[in-house]
Structures are given as C-alpha cells and as structure tokens.
Amino acid sequence: MVFDTYHIIYLLAIFFLIFVVHRFMRVFFEHRKYKRILGILAYSFYFIMTTLVYLLIDIPLITLITNLITMFIISLTYEASIQKRIICVVYMYLFMAAAEIIAAAMTGYINFSVFSQGEFRDTFGLIATRIVAYCETLLLENIKLTRKGRNISWISWLASIVIPISTLILEVIIANQTNLTKVEAVGSVLLLFAVNIIAFYLYDSLAENYIKKSKLALLQKEKELYSRQCEIMQSSTEDLQAFRHDMSNQLIILNHLLEEGKDEEARRQLDQLSHFIKGKVIYSTSGNTIIDGLVNYKLQSVASENIKVETEIVVPEQLNIDIADLVTLLGNLLDNALEALKKVDREQRMLTIKIMFSQERLIGRITNTYCGEIYLKDDKILTSKKEKQKHGYGLSNVEKIIKKYNGYMEIDYANWEFRVDFIIYLPQKN
Known about the structure:
65% of the residues lie in helices and 11% in strands. The protein contains 11 helices and 7 strands. It has helices at 5-28, 36-57, 60-75, 82-109, 121-147, 154-175, 182-259, 263-278, 289-298, 323-341, 388-404, and strands at residues 308-314, 350-358, 361-369, 375-377, 380-382, 408-414, 417-425.
C-alpha cells in the first residue's frame, strides 16, 4: 500500500477525532467520575484499532462496527448505566454521520465551485467532517451547561462557531491550491488542528478559573453573611436569657399577687404576660449558643407564615466543630426547607427539626411539607430556583462539610413530605 498524503492526514484526523470524542463524552458523563488511567488506555486502543482497520481492511461495515465497539469501550471508563453508555455511542455516531453529510455537501456533492478543483479535495472532505463534528460537540457542551443553570456568554457561543468555521475557510483556501507539497499539506492540517485544540484548551482554562473565582467570591459572601448572622444569633441568645429572667420575675410577681388575694390585679398582670409572650417565640433552648441562635433566628418569621413547627434539639453546650461549618450546614438546610414551605398552602405548612448528639455523632433530621415536582438528575435534587448556579454552590458546600466530618446525608420524599437526614462525626478533643 502506498502511504500517500491522504493517509498521513487521515492519521492526524484520527488524533483530532479522539479529542472530539473525549469532549463528546463529557457532555454525557460526569467528568469527575472519569477513570483517568483506564481512559488513556481506552483512547489508545481506539486509535490503534481504527488505524489498523483503515490501513489493513478499509471496509465501511467493518469500520462502523469497530467504531461502535471502541466507543463503547471508552464509555466504560465513566460511571454510568449500560443504557446510558449505549445511548451515548449511538448519539455520537449519529452526530458523526451528520457531520459527514454536511462535509460531503461542502466538498462537492452540492455544486459549490470553490470546491470543484484542487488536488486535496478529498482530503478537505475528511478534515471538514472532523471539524464539523467538533463544532457540533462544542454547541452540545454549551447547551448542557445552559440547562444546568450556568450562564454562557455570547462570546462562548460565538467562539464555538467562529473558530471551527474559520478553520474550514482556511482549509477551503488550502484545498484549492494546486502547487502544495506533501509536507505543506500535512503541515497545514496539523497546524489547523493544533490551533483548534489550543484555542479551546485556553478557553476551558479561563472558564474554569472564572468558575473557581466565582465560587470563592460566593463562599466569601456566604461567610460574611453567616458572620453577621452569628452576631444576630448572639443577640438572639442574649434576648433569650433576658426573656428567661423576665419570665422568672413575672411569675414571682404573679404568684405573690395570687397569695395576697389580688385576683383582679393578677389577671391584668397575666394579660400583660400573655401579650409579652406572643412576641417572644422560642424554638430551641438546648443551651448550645450557635444552634439555638441559628434556629431561633431562621424561624423568627415563622409565626406570621402560619408554619406549624416542632423542634427536638438535645445537644451539649459545646461541640467539636468549626462554627462556620455548623452554620453553613444547618443554615443551608433550614433555608431550603423554608423556601419549599413558601409554596405550600398555609394550612399544610409543617416543619420538624430534630437534632441530637450521641456517641460522638451529631444526628439531624429536617422534615418539611412540599408541593410540586421533585426533579432529579444523576440521583441529585435539582433546585427550582431561578438562580440555579448559586443554589448549587450552597448544596455543594453542605456536601463538602458532610464529607469533611466523615458523615453522610440521605434525602427522601413521600406523601408530600421532604426529609433530610444527616450524621457527622465529632470526636471529643484530646
């Protein structure tokens, strides 16, 4: 077999196709569940098999079967169901077929005069197929991120189209040159492939850095917010202590009036005490300043929302946990419960908070009624809030704290009740 320019470019195109397949897999599967070492081996196997089949056999049906099998093997390096892997492989090949149809139209099946001449017309068709597939994959990535709630800038959308199209235009120019040498043809293809890969690698890096900075900025704002809340919680705790003191004095006075037989004055005093108590609803009196303050602070508006609240909080005054972690954990869970209760009919609003400490474990259960659908994706609850991205960061912080303390969280919902159970391990300090 003569190893001509087309064969060289075909091998280069396979390298680029591997890059396209990798990005396509990222659309279907969670990248964090990717087995890196096995992935490298799978992609290497893909390159070797497709190359050998092309060079030694070059039968379309065999090529099709080889591609399907090797793509499925690649999908095995991601954690997913068999059904999802099969769907991914089928979709991938359908997108490749669509890319070939578009490239075929561009290279002469539709009578575009710009493609009617040139020694490398077939070669351009091969390159065009890969680049069109690449463009399809980039657009799918942006669509996926948009559905997940991430704001995709118009620059990203434009780059996903302009960069590949610009590459095709350059290849049009190259394809119509009749005086190119083999080295020049191969070099131009290699350069254009490299430009696309480098351009989007840099873009991905910048986008990742932007996301990290956004998360850090949001986390910093959350810490500042919780710092202010801690101050309010401290004030709430002080108010609670003052309330207990006032209640004690009021009861002493009331008891004294009753002993003196001053029933009418005692009744007036009792009315004043009743009015005083109405504005002082206390939900947690465990003695733990942080938990009591947080629960009472979060639920201070519950009385006006007609929410039936039940609390059972039995914890020591001191816990071996970072205050910011405790506030972030309980604060986010309570915020989510109260947000869900706003959508429930006033007669059906119920919230139960149970927190206890036993055998160096902080155990919690927060239950609330809800209405509407619960949306799931990859076994995770999706928010119905408009600001999905920010909400996602909050839940992510909860999960990080659970993992930090070697705990676990379980979510269940049935009969219009949403329940979150969590356990974190808090060994006593030596």
